[in-house]
Write a structure and sequence with these properties.
Elements: E1 2-5, H1 6-11, E2 55-57, E3 63-67, E4 70-72, E5 78-84, E6 92-93, H2 116-131, E7 134-135, E8 137-144, E9 147-153, E10 163-170, E11 176-183, E12 191-197, E13 200-205, E14 209-214, E15 219-224, E16 232-236, E17 245-256, E18 269-270, E19 276-290, E20 295-305, E21 322-324, E22 327-332, E23 341-344, E24 347-350, E25 356-361, E26 365-370, E27 381-386, E28 391-396, E29 404-408, E30 411-415, E31 421-426, E32 432-439, E33 450-454, E34 463-478, E35 481-497
C-alpha cells in the first residue's frame, strides 16, 4: 500500500491527468491480440478533407427548450466497474542506479540544508533506498474498454527515472502482464503520458518523444522525436474521433531574480536552483499521425501568449484550437459584442452567452458549460445545441449537489470536484437522470477519508481514481516533527456503455 503524507494528499485533490478510453460491448468478448502498428491495419491513410458548406447558426436558428430533470431509480445506461490496484503486486526492486558504481552520480542528499539533523535524515533515507527493494508506485494510467495500461515507477529517490515498468491489467479480473520494462543506470526515461487507441499503446516520454509499444517484442518504437530543450513539452490530445494528435510547445521565457513577485496565476521556474525565469508565451504546434503512411502532418502552428487563467497556460484560438471530442473548436467574441461565438472548421454557433467552456463538439452537436473556469464564474447550466434538429437544450443541474460536469457516453456526467458526493448521468434531450455512484468522505484534522479525481479528457472515457484511507499512524521520520501517515487503497472506477446497433 502506498504511503501518503496528509499534506501531500490534500494538495493532490485538484490534480488530474489525461486518460484514454473507447467503448466496448457490455457483454465481454474474448480478449483480442494487440495490434502491431507495423502491420499497417489500424487505419487508412489520411485523406484530403471533404469540402462541405460552412454553416453559421444565429441564436434564432434554434428552438430553446429548458429541460426539467427527472431523477429515476431505473437501471442506468452505463455499467460501473471497480479495480483495487493496491491489491495487485507490481513487485519490488532496487533500481540499477543504486549500484555502487553509479549511486554517487545520482545522490539526492547533497542539498545545502542548514539543519544538520535534517541533512542527516535525508542521507539515511537515501542510503536506505540503495539497499532495500522499493515497491513500485503508480505514476500514470490509461484505459481502453476494460483494459488498463499502468506505468509503475520504482526509482523515486533519484535525479532520474532508471527503473520503471508498464503493465497491461484486465480491469474485470485484475490479471496483469508486464509489457515493457526500463532498467538502465545510464539513461533516464520519464514517462509523461500513456494513451491507447485502436489496440495500440502510445507512450509519451520526456527524453525521446512519442513511442508506440510493440507488445510482441516488449519494446518501444519511436515515431516522434522530442525537441532537445528544457522548455519543450508535449501531450497527446484526447479525442473521440480515433485520431492520434500531439500538441507540442516550446516556452518563451524571461529571466527574473529569485525573489521576483509574480502576478496572479503566474509562477517562477528554475532548472538548476540558481537561475529563475517566467513563461511569457509558447510556440505551439499540433500534429496528426497518419496510420497508413506512418507520417506526421502539421495541422496548426502559432505563437500563444501566456494566459495564467487557462489550464496549461495556453488558450484555444483560431490559429491553434483544441479538439473537443470529434472536432477542433475555439470561441471568439465578434466586434462590439459581449457574447461568444463558438467556431469549428465546418460551422459557427452564436451562443448568446457572455461566458462558456466547450465540453464537446461534433458535426451534429455542440455542448457548452455556461460561465468559465478561467474566470471562476462557472454555473450549473449546460447548453446543448443540436445542429440537426435546430434545438437548444438548457440543463440546470444545480439541484444535484455536484459542482462539475463533462460530456461523455452521449450524456452529461455531473460529479463532485472534491472528495464527496454523487455522480449522475443526464440524458440531455429528455432530462432523465440516473444515480451512477455515491462517494462519501469525511474530514479529520489532517486529511480526507477518501478523495477522487476524474480524468477529464475529451476522448469519451469516464473513469475516476479514488484513494480510500485505510490505516493511520503517527511517525517521527523527520527530527522534531511528528506526521500523520496513511495507507490508502487505490481504486479505479470506470463506466462502460453497451454499443448501439446501427
Amino acid at each position: 500500500m502506498k504511503k501518503i503524507i496528509s499534506i501531500i494528499a490534500a494538495a493532490a485533490l485538484t490534480l488530474s491527468c489525461f486518460s484514454c478510453s473507447e467503448d466496448k460491448k457490455k457483454k465481454e468478448k474474448p480478449e483480442e491480440k494487440p495490434v502491431n502498428i507495423e502491420d499497417g491495419v489500424n487505419e487508412p491513410a489520411l485523406d484530403e478533407p471533404v469540402k462541405t458548406e460552412y454553416k453559421e447558426f444565429s441564436e434564432d436558428s434554434f428552438n430553446t427548450v429548458e429541460v426539467k430533470l427527472n431523477i429515476t431509480d431505473k437501471e442506468p445506461p452505463l455499467t460501473m466497474h471497480q479495480l483495487n490496484t493496491s491489491q495487485i503486486d507490481f513487485g519490488s526492486v532496487i533500481p540499477p542506479c543504486k549500484d555502487e558504481k553509479y549511486r554517487d552520480r545520482y545522490r539526492t542528499d547533497r542539498s545545502d540544508y542548514e539543519d544538520e539533523e535534517y541533512r542527516k535524515f535525508i542521507t539515511e533515507q537515501w542510503e536506505k533506498s540503495c539497499t532495500e527493494p522499493k515497491k513500485g508506485d503508480i505514476y500514470c494510467s490509461c484505459i481502453e474498454g476494460n483494459t488498463f495500461y499502468i506505468e509503475v515507477e520504482y526509482d523515486t529517490t533519484c535525479l532520474g527515472h532508471h527503473e520503471s515498468a508498464i503493465f497491461r491489467v484486465d480491469g474485470l479480473t485484475g490479471n496483469k502482464e508486464e509489457v515493457f520494462r526500463h532498467s538502465d543506470p545510464e539513461n533516464s526515461l520519464i514517462i509523461w503520458q500513456l494513451y491507447s487507441i485502436n489496440g495500440v499503446l502510445y507512450v509519451l516520454t520526456r527524453e525521446k518523444g512519442l513511442y508506440y509499444l510493440d507488445e510482441e517484442k516488449k519494446e518501444l518504437v519511436n515515431i516522434l522525436e522530442a525537441e532537445e530543450s528544457q522548455k519543450y513539452s508535449a501531450y497527446v490530445m484526447g479525442n473521440s474521433a480515433g485520431r492520434l494528435l500531439v500538441r507540442e510547445s516550446i516556452n518563451h521565457t524571461e529571466d527574473v531574480p529569485k525573489d521576483y513577485k509574480t502576478e496572479s496565476g503566474q509562477y517562477t521556474y528554475s532548472d538548476d536552483g540558481e537561475n529563475y525565469y517566467i513563461i511569457t508565451g509558447s510556440d505551439v504546434k499540433v500534429k496528426e499521425y497518419d496510420f497508413g503512411s506512418k507520417t506526421w502532418k502539421e495541422l496548426y502552428s502559432a505563437f500563444a501568449d501566456y494566459d495564467p487563467n487557462v489550464y496549461g497556460s495556453i488558450s484555444a484560438s483560431k490559429e491553434c484550437p483544441f479538439i473537443y471530442g470529434e472536432l477542433f473548436a475555439w470561441k471568439e467574441k465578434p466586434e462590439n459584442s459581449r457574447k461568444y461565438d463558438v467556431c469549428t472548421e465546418s460551422y459557427k454557433v452564436s451562443t448568446g452567452l457572455t461566458g462558456c467552456d466547450i465540453l464537446y463538439a461534433s458535426d451534429k452537436k455542440l455542448v457548452l458549460r455556461q460561465g468559465s473556469k478561467a474566470s471562476s464564474s462557472e454555473t450549473s447550466f449546460v447548453h446543448v445545441f443540436d445542429l440537426e434538429s435546430s434545438t437548444h437544450y438548457i440543463i440546470d443541474y444545480s439541484g444535484l449537489g455536484a459542482d462539475n460536469c463533462k460530456y461523455a457516453k452521449d450524456g452529461i456526467v455531473v460529479y463532485p470536484s472534491v472528495g464527496s458526493g454523487k455522480v449522475y448521468y443526464i440524458m440531455p434531450e429528455i432530462g432523465l437522470t440516473f444515480d451512477l455512484a455515491s462517494f462519501d468522505s469525511t474530514y479529520d484534522e489532517y486529511a480526507l477519508d477518501m478523495w477522487l479525481s476524474l480524468y477529464d479528457s475529451y476522448d469519451n472515457s469516464l473513469w475516476f481514481d479514488i484513494n480510500i484511507k485505510k490505516d493511520e499512524r503517527e511517525v517521527t521520520e523527520e527530527p522534531g516533527v511528528i506526521y500523520k501517515e496513511y495507507d490508502y487503497d487505490q481504486v479505479k472506477v470506470w463506466f462502460t456503455q453497451e454499443e448501439k446497433n446501427e
